[in-house]
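debug: dumping io for the single-chain case to check the tokenizer round-trip. Nothing else runs in this session.
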Amino acid sequence: MSIGQIWVDADACPKVIKEILFRAANRVELPLILVANQPMQTPGSRFIRSAQVGAGFDVADNYIVQQAVPGDLVITADIPLADEVISKGCLALNPRGDLYTKENIRQRLNMRDFMDSLRSSGINTGGPAPLGQADRQAFANQLDRLLARY
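debug: decoded output
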């Protein structure tokens, strides 16, 4: 099976990750669709486009879930979105290069829910560390492996 197209949960996707994706989409001639609540700047390419959805909670996520088909790759840091697209037969990769799978998604959802309950009880859990060079490299390497394998 080959990757049909790449969907990007683009509102929160770091610019540097989008740039890696732009280069990859052009290199392997694979459709790349950025989905966001706001207008997105995309380079002029027949392989890259954006889809602007309405404002609101999970509107972009719901659009991706509705449009993605088995074999597509979804780039997201949103664990519930990753869980939904994995259950549809898609691949899901976060901007730090971690591949979400059927085997690890339940554990990640549980950890997310646990951290959410800590925050709602007033405990400051901090946020994720800034995206560093090692994260960018891990993402690029994992993306290359996926594009070569599928």
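debug: round-trip ok. The longest helix spans residues 133-149.
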